[in-house]
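Sat 14:20. Reprocessing the chain from the morning session after the first attempt stalled halfway. Input below, unchanged.
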Amino acid sequence: MIGKNISIILMCTFLLFNSSCSWGIGLPEGKITLKVIDEDGNPIENANIGIGFERNTGSGTEKVPKNGKSDKQGNFTGAARTINYASYIVDKDGYYQSYGEYRFKNHESGKWQPWNPEIKVVMRKIEKPVPMYAKDLKMEHPEILIPAVGKDIGFDLVECDWVAPYGKGKHSDFIFKLVKTITDINNYDSKLTITFPNKFDGIQIVKDNRKGGSIFKLPRYASEEGYQNKLIRFLNRHGVGAPESDFSDDNNYIFRIRSEEKDGKLIRAMYGKIHGDIRFYPGDSKTASLGFKYFLNPDYTRNLEYGENFFLGVQVGID
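Finished this time. Tokens:
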């Protein structure tokens, strides 16, 4: 009986060993070339590059790293036996870090296809980062609640608070109006309207999924034109299914506030950006919680390159 048990254990060990080896050895080989360029398309030499291929271990996956530097043409090639996935990260002094991933489509004769594709990686130069007021309202504790339903209520981005009588804010940079009818947590209709107090204030959508590329997202400078004075978002739910909304992960915004005019012409204004959509969550509260990540440049230039945070001790990622 003991001998039989030992035989079973040895057989299992043999199978596990061979299975573990086969996860790596039996995988097709993948190969990619990263071409690192700047925003003008010029190659960047000596960028630090890390490619992470992956292979199965039988209980998960492990990285197969390939590290090096880009050559004079901005190229770096890595290869390894891998599953159909590879991630990469690129950095260099004077530039914002860039990152991404690549998925192979199929394999032939032990090689992932397409074989050795060229992947362009654009690095954005660090030029003139400026201090800003930056907050991610989704991370605020306690959460930011819209104070009332059916009322125009101003929100001060510098104070990160509602204007009086609901908070210590002094300027109505954004004006929010929540309209909401709710039966219970699974049945409600809600609409959030955002307006602005000044003639040249406004907001515009910038489409970017922010899932790869440079960690410095969105345009370097705010546009001078194209701002609208009103933005509407809705969130409805009828039953236990998923809510209906016009939220989108691709939605980002550039805004202009505290605009000043003379003789009907814009004199100056503050500019900023919002990463991701402006979301609100009616849930079962009397009003709704508010969530968006904003960066406000108070120096009256259109520069959107974020440096330090005027909110001391608050860390907000730029990606």
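Residues 22 and 57 are 9 Å apart (CA to CA).
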